[in-house]
């Protein structure tokens, strides 16, 4: 890496200040880390540090010229502004760990430049590209025939065991992609333990489901049909048998997947449709691009609170939902 580059300078500050001690499992610990008094304190710091931020991916990504996580940028930026890192106790034992104004300036400059590079195609002016919140300005390439099939499947109750529940039951497109219930209602009137996340803009999520257990939209689409509380189907064959008796739907599969009706083609088509459920040029997007009248005063106050409580350290960029 070019030592004159801002990437190198920023990584050097993070490395020299010992961030890796508590935010990665790959760091070589100092000799005193095995001392009886120091060991439990350091282990506790590492456990806490790893819970909040893992820095290995950031280091490796920069070294390999890969995209930098906007969450990582936002979290580093937050602790620079509030002065919470390095912790006071750590600094009391490592006098050189404190970040100087010059080093802070280097890191903040790197964060802003990196963020601006990520959003170089954003419709906002140059100064706004450095902010944590950005409008949606990208969309996904999709196959239109598969989108049409996916839309039909998304609204098809035959994906459920008793033909009463569809994806749209809990993720209504006319109610913000949700059902506005504390607990979503599934097959046989059963109430789930959590509410439904919105399907709108979910294609931008790094992971799917509230707990991030699905890697992508297709992976997510394969879960609810077999959840006994949600849709309660016994298996793909039960669903395939029902769908195969519908000539119109079979024709759509013929056109989109050469007639293959499988769990893979069903979930792929649903995911293809969900990629179209994005909301560019919303009122909030318009506000972010400079139209101060696009949202009202109450909404602006909500945005102030959103930033005040550091919500934008995790919910930012194009992803205003869960990122891990």
Task: Report on this structure.
The chain is 45% helix and 0% strand. The chain is mostly helical. It is elongated. Residues 319-324 have low confidence and may be disordered.
Secondary-structure map:
Layout (H helix, E strand, L loop, with lengths): L5 H11 L2 H5 L14 H15 L3 H8 L6 H13 L5 H6 L7 H18 L25 H11 L12 H4 L46 H5 L14 H8 L3 H11 L5 H12 L8 H6 L8 H12 L16
Helix content: 40-55%
What fraction of residues sit in β-strands?
A: under 5%
Which blocks of ≥5 consecutive residues have pLDDT under 50?
A: 319-324
Q: What is the CATH domain class of the largest domain?
A: Mainly Alpha
How many distinct folded domains?
Answer: 2
Could you name the CATH homologous superfamily of the largest domain? Answer: Cytochrome c-like domain
Shape: elongated
Q: Determine the mean pLDDT.
A: 91
So how many helices? 15
In short:
45% of the residues lie in helices and 0% in strands. The chain is mostly helical and 324 residues long. Helix 5 (70-82) runs antiparallel to helix 7 (101-118) and helix 8 crosses helix 13.
Observed structural traits:
324 residues; Cytochrome Bc1 Complex, Chain D, domain 2; 2 domains; 15 helices; elongated; disordered C terminus
